[in-house]
Amino acid sequence: MTTAKRLTDFFCISEKLETEKRLTRTSSGDNQVVAAHSWNMAIMALAINPYLIHVVNMERVLELCLLHDLPEAISHDIPLHEQTESIKKQKYINEQHAVDTIMSLLQDDWVKARFDEYEAKQTPEARLVKLLDVLDTGIQHMCAKDLVYVTKYDNGFYWKLFFSNKFMTGFDYEPVLREIYDEIRGRVEKRLINEQNLDINRFIDRGENDT
Predict the structure, then answer these.
(1) What is the pTM of this model?
(2) Do 45 and 132 touch, CB atoms closer than 8 A?
(3) Please, what's the largest Cα pairwise distance for the chain?
(4) Class for the domain spanning 3-203
C-alpha cells in the first residue's frame, strides 16, 4: 500500500470524528461532536497556557488534545451513564483495536506514544489534557441551549458528578482551571435555579470524600 493510500484511508477515519456525537449538547441544541470537543480542548490549552504553574510542552499538549479521542472514530463514544464494568472492559478492547487500525495506516511510533501517554496520565501534558477533557463537559453544561436532558439521566447522575468534591478538587492541580471551574459551576447553578427550579444541594453528597 502506498503512503498516499494509507494516509487517505486514515483521513477517511479521522473525518468520522466530525459526525461522532457525544451526549453533551451545544448552545444550538445539537449534540456536540467529538471533533468539536477536541478542538475546544486545544483552544482552551492555548488560552490558559500563560497562567499554568506546571511547565508543559504545548506542542505535545495540542497533539494530545487532537488525538486523545481519535479511536472513537472507529470504536464510537459511549456515554458515561451507560458504562457498566463489562461495557468498560469491551470499550477498552475496542479502543485498542482502533488504535491498531490507526497505527497500521500512520505507521508512526509517536502517535502510539501519545495514545499511551494520555492513557497513563502521568506526564504534566497528559494530566493537563485530562483536566481539559473534563472541563469541556462543564463548558457544555454552561452553554447548552437547555439543561433538561442532563437532569433526566439516572436521578441526576451527571449533576451528582459535576457538583461532587472529586470533580471539583481535581482541578486544584492547576489553580487557573480551578478558578475557571468555580466560575462555570456558579453559572450552571444559576441556570438550574432559574430554568428548572433545582437546588444543587439535592445532588451533593455531604458525606463524600474530598479525594
Answers:
(1) 0.92
(2) yes
(3) 60
(4) mainly alpha
